[in-house]
Specification:
The chain is α/β, with parallel strands linked by helices. It contains six helices and twelve strands. The chain folds into two domains: 67 residues, Hypothetical PUA domain-like, domain 1 (Ribosomal Protein L25, Chain P); 167 residues, 3-Layer(aba) Sandwich (Alpha/beta knot). Strand 4 and strand 5 form a beta hairpin. Bound molecules: S-adenosylmethionine (SAM).
Length: 249
């Protein structure tokens, strides 16, 4: 059985079969988990490998271990999904982030759009970026992913920036409750898409100008059916449907 405690480390912390842990991982291992030399942990380093590492030396500033087993895992979707999610009230963005990680999103970008509820959101959101990245890391540990999605990599973005940055994705969608015809089931790409960018709006939805702007960047408007879904429902349904059509659900 694999050891239950998972740690993500940077590639340079693994040299041959030696692993060095530093920073907050040390206090977590020593003080919270009270692990000692001889105990094992699981180490992941942004690859498809999951390592079982036996602790060799547990010091106050650094922990050293050795790799005793390596297993190749295939938990990352072949479809790289990039979600542009408008900022929303309270802790709902956090919830969407957790579910997006579980549903295999490769990146999540918070967006400031016209109808985001308050304009003070931008500064508050910047302060939240560190916390969002911790949420993504914890969700990865929980669901067993080996690659931590990028969250707010370039900070809080505008819709235009997101569209421009995702210009090269194979498929590009803006989910819009006023789209009456096209659903994802109507999309028939010639080849298996490997990447997709999607936009989900805030509580008040996207403005007509934003839809026009996304269309200029060749984002297609798509419907999630005849009912208006709450933002958090829309994100989960869209991601599930995308993974089901072209990913690994
Ligand atoms: N303000 C809108 C209204 O009341 O008519 C609803 C916006 S909805 C709560 C928030 C976001 O979820 C939308 O911007 C859209 O991205 C997505 N969404 C919700 N229901 C949808 C649907 N039926 N089709 C496509 N997108 C939907």
């Amino acid at each position: 059985m694999s050891p239950p405690h998972k740690f993500f480390v940077a590639g340079e912390q693994i040299v041959a079969d030696k692993v060095t842990l530093a920073g907050s991982d040390v206090s977590h291992i020593r003080t919270v988990l009270r692990l000692k030399a001889g105990d094992s942990i699981q180490v992941i380093s942004d690859s498809d490998k999951r390592l079982t590492v036996r602790l060799v030396e547990v010091k106050t500033k650094e922990i050293r271990g050795e790799v005793i087993a390596s297993e190749t895992v295939n938990v990352e979707s072949p479809l790289a999904v990039h979600l542009g999610q408008a900022l929303i009230m309270g802790s709902k963005f956090d919830a969407i982030l957790r579910k997006s990680v579980e549903l295999g999103a490769r990146s999540v970008t918070p967006l400031m759009t016209e109808r985001c509820v308050t304009k003070t959101h931008q500064r508050a959101a910047e302060r939240k970026i560190e916390r969002w990245n911790k949420i993504a890391l914890e969700s990865c540990k929980q669901c067993g992913r080996t690659q931590i999605p990028k969250v707010a990599d370039g900070g809080v973005a505008t819709l235009e920036t997101f569209c421009r940055d995702n210009d090269r994705q194979d498929l590009k969608f803006v989910f819009w409750e006023l789209e009456e015809k096209r659903t994802l089931k109507d999309i028939a790409p010639n080849t298996q898409p490997r990447s997709v960018a999607l936009l989900i709006g805030p509580e008040g939805g996207f403005s007509q100008a934003e839809i026009a702007s996304a269309r200029e960047y060749n984002f297609q408007t798509v419907s999630l059916g005849p009912r208006i879904l709450r933002v958090e429902t829309a994100a989960v349904v869209a991601l599930s449907q995308l993974q089901s059509l072209w990913g690994d659900l």
